[in-house]
Amino acid sequence: MKAAIETLNKAKEDLAINGQTLEQIDAANYAGVFALNQGDVLVPTGFGDLSAWWADTNYVDTTATGLKFKPVSGNYKISVNTDTKTVMFKRVNADGTDATLADDGTGAIWLMGWGVGAPSLDNQFGWDAGKAYCMPEVAPGIYEFIGYAGPEKGSVIGQYFRYDYISMKYFHQNGWGGEMTAENTTLDSSLLKVAGNLELADGVQLEDGEMYVLTIDASAGKGNVVVKFEKVKK
Prior knowledge:
Elements: H1 2-13, E1 16-17, E2 20-21, E3 23-24, E4 29-36, E5 41-42, E6 44-45, E7 54-55, E8 60-62, E9 67-69, E10 74-81, E11 86-92, E12 109-117, E13 124-126, E14 133-135, E15 137-139, E16 142-150, E17 159-162, E18 167-171, E19 185-188, E20 192-195, E21 197-200, E22 211-217, E23 225-231
Parallel strand pairs: 7-11, 16-17, 19-23
Antiparallel strand pairs: 1-2, 1-6, 3-4, 4-10, 5-9, 8-9, 10-11, 12-13, 12-14, 12-18, 15-16, 16-22, 18-21, 20-21, 22-23
């Protein structure tokens, strides 16, 4: 009887998504690799009050039945932190290794730099190899990162772009190697300039509290990429 009760209690504590139990990495971190299709609904169990959690809004929309998955079909790693109550996603290969950008522009694009972060600007991406942000591929070869402009410190969840300073770059892998250059990238935005990295154009500040979208269009191949950055029209 005691063993049965312990087994039942453990089952109640397991974190799962669509019935697949997440692997516990350490005291606060859990992860699992999932084959997902665009439009799938992810149903978390074992998380308690879901309203207390934040799941990356660039990857999922919250619905009455669960989390609706937004990117293209593929293999994804879902990482959960029970201390911060956050759910993050990244594109991976079937074996769980980080995906890379294919020659045709599909796969994965990774973002590093300052003035950009998630779930808020208190968590800027920086330049540490292996810790880049995987932009969701919302259509073949097209990647988007959408969020509000906010301050460097004291930002709130959803403020992903610093209104007064940005210095970021996209990469072909989770770390240094293939990356954005002036030769392989066309900039289509009055808000940014290419100065080694993508930076705010001279004299430009974003509007604090307004929503912006960074679009990286690699549908013509990774050697012919168009970068757009604009305020979302209401």
